[in-house]
Design goal:
44% of the residues lie in helices and 21% in strands. The protein is an alpha/beta fold. Strands 3-2-1-4-5-10-6 form a 7-stranded mixed beta sheet, sandwiched between helices. A 3-stranded antiparallel beta sheet has the order 7-9-8. The chain starts with 7 loop residues before the first helix and ends with a strand. The chain has one domain: Vaccinia Virus protein VP39 (Rossmann fold), CATH 3.40.50.150. It binds S-adenosylmethionine (SAM).
Length: 293
């Protein structure tokens, strides 16, 4: 079982194993929900900092490549969108779907951004929720900065603090109360976690240390659909996000508590039911930064 201190290289390798394994499977299962919710925050980032025709754009932690395809359309045939992700299974799917959609100016590479990024220069490095999981974020952002053209820009969407992402946070508290956090586990973890860049000062300092300047954080509050009904929202909360991560790491040891967790989540999520589904508050930072001198 893992519980001892490890280097950031080991931790990153472990996070990649998680993303390429159980988390990939879970993102496939809930893609229809996740893409819609995350999509609105990503769209707002692309509205604030639109890629221009002819630009080369890097999409960091591109997952299934939804945003890479979107960016490829915006930069047009004279531009290029390069999606990178550390998990080969995400990249396989991204490549296949872009080929099926006959998108000629998007390509994908398996890359651990903490290690390197494809050769630049890129006018824009974009990321929708793909930068919060680096064990050594300064090293990763330094790589990104070095690949940016002078006058280029980093634009990324990251979760703001837990308390303003009420549905994720309440689900986490429910699971923590009933199941507790594991001290030891066999499963790989997803890295520092979705809220690792929630603190504006910490995020600003990480980017400064990586050599970025003109760092601007825009707060973006847009509620997101977390399920067509309460049962789907419960399934998603128990599979993804901080609550899902605790349950995954607890594994079989917590299975006997799952019914109790479901019941507690049911009471909580019932308060969020609207006409078209279960709607949770969601708050992100859309971060813009330039690569400095
Ligand atoms: C929450 S998902 C977001 C995926 C996609 N950007 C989206 O919005 O649908 C985070 C992604 O970051 C990727 N990732 C995590 N660590 C990474 C690393 N060190 N280098 C590159 N990608 C990484 C994961 O494999 C995963 O696909």
């Amino acid at each position: 079982m893992r519980s001892t201190t490890r280097s950031s290289v080991d931790e990153n390798a472990e996070a990649i194993a998680a993303w390429d394994g159980p988390l990939y499977d879970r993102f496939v299962r809930f893609r229809h929900i996740v893409a819609g919710g995350l999509g609105q925050h990503g769209d707002e980032a692309l509205r604030l900092y639109p890629p221009e025709p002819g630009q080369r754009v890097l999409d960091i932690g591109c997952g299934f490549g939804d945003t890479t395809q979107r960016i490829a359309a915006l930069v047009g045939p004279d531009g290029e969108a390069v999606g990178v992700d550390a998990a080969p299974r995400f990249i396989d799917t991204a490549r296949r779907e872009a080929a099926e959609a006959a998108i000629g100016n998007a390509r994908f590479e398996v890359v651990d951004v903490q290690d390197k990024v494809p050769p630049g220069p890129f006018e824009l490095a974009f990321s929708r929720f793909g930068t919060m999981f680096f064990a050594n974020p300064v090293a990763a952002f330094r790589n990104v900065r070095q690949a940016l053209a002078p006058g280029g820009r980093l634009v990324m969407v990251v979760w703001r603090r837990r308390i303003d992402n009420d549905c994720l946070y309440r689900a986490q508290m429910i699971v923590e109360q009933i199941v507790g956090r594991p001290e030891e586990y066999d499963e790989p973890t997803c890295g520092p976690g979705p809220f690792s860049m929630a603190d504006a000062d910490v995020t600003t300092d990480i980017l400064r240390h990586a050599g970025f300047t003109e760092i601007v954080l825009h707060r973006c509050d847009l509620p997101i659909m977390i399920g067509a009904d309460v049962e789907e929202a419960i399934d998603m909360m128990m599979a993804l996000g901080p609550a899902g991560e605790i349950l995954r790491l607890q594994g079989d040891r917590a299975v006997h508590l799952h019914d109790e967790v479901r019941q507690a989540l049911r009471s909580r999520l019932a308060e969020l039911v609207r006409n078209d589904g279960v709607l949770g508050a969601a708050s992100t930072w859309i971060v813009g930064a330039t690569p400095g001198g």
